[in-house]
Amino acid sequence: MLRSIMVAMCLLVMPVLSHAQADKLKVALVLPGSVTDGTFNSAAAEGIKKAQEKYPNLQVSIRENTQVAEAQEALSAYARDGYDIVIGHGFQFADPAKRIHKRFPDTWFIINTAKVAEAPNLASFDNRWGDAGYIAGAVAALLTESGKIGNIPAIPVPTIQEYDDGFKRGAQRINPDIEVMSAYVGSFSDIAKAKEITASMINSGADVVSAIGNENVMGTLQAAKEKGVVMIGTAFDSAALAPDTIATTALINFDVNIDMAIGKVIDGTIEPKNYLLGLNENGIGLAPYRKFEDKLSAEDKAKIKEIMDGIRAGTIDDLPEIR
């Protein structure tokens, strides 16, 4: 009897919110770049927009272009202002969140693209970037005519390294003799440098390129458009920016991350742990081929489907290591 009473009391105090209460949630999204970068930050902004559509009265604040030195204060300021959920979009928010989260027990700190967690109120949502890169590399290998492709990552941090490694492995699965070029920009925001590196790869024969990061991706897109080569996008489906250049995009579905985080806070199931989302969780995907539908044969498309089915089933044994 006493046990039953105690269980009932615990259920009464669990932080489970109804949809009406959920509409009163205050959610902050702290971004390292601009919502118009066409990739990483755009994808997160789209995710928070979808959350607002699901919960129309959700109170949302977005802070863009947050520098590393500003990260801790940006997270703290939102918590002091009574925000229920503060989402740091990027690995650079992990350490600042670890330093401050215990000071604000009424706020859940959620970090995207990092593997960090700590009781009572710090969790992270990461995606299988290596799997996404693997799919992108396979598509690039099927589209190339020169047998040379390139990837231009921003800086060597775990998620980006996973994508880069996956891009190489996926391409080599299709064609073991393919030449895969890779060179880091050294910056998330240096568009000119990314354009220069991409142009150099194209001049060396690459006719399909990819890029991963923030604003640096726009430099690769500019070079690809000017040189008339194909690009595989990353994270955010920005084909509308260059429909004759972007064949498809290796999607990182941050809307799923954000929706899952908010949903788990609402129903009280959020835990201080890392949630890792792949194809099976709809955390990654592949955008439509659109204008490039006819560039890939039915056999080519079947190969991509076979790879994606294999990733879902866990039967592909050369996927990149999760760092």
UniProtKB/TrEMBL annotation:
SUPFAM superfamilies: Periplasmic binding protein-like I. InterPro entries: BMP_lipoprotein (IPR050957), Peripla_BP_I (IPR028082), PnrA-like (IPR003760). It is found in: Cell membrane. It is a lipid-anchor. Residues 25-304 form the ABC transporter substrate-binding protein PnrA-like domain. Residues 1-20 form the signal peptide. It comes from the Bacteria. Keywords: Cell membrane, Lipoprotein, Membrane, Signal. Belongs to the BMP lipoprotein family. This is ABC transporter substrate-binding protein PnrA-like domain-containing protein. It comes from Neopusillimonas maritima.
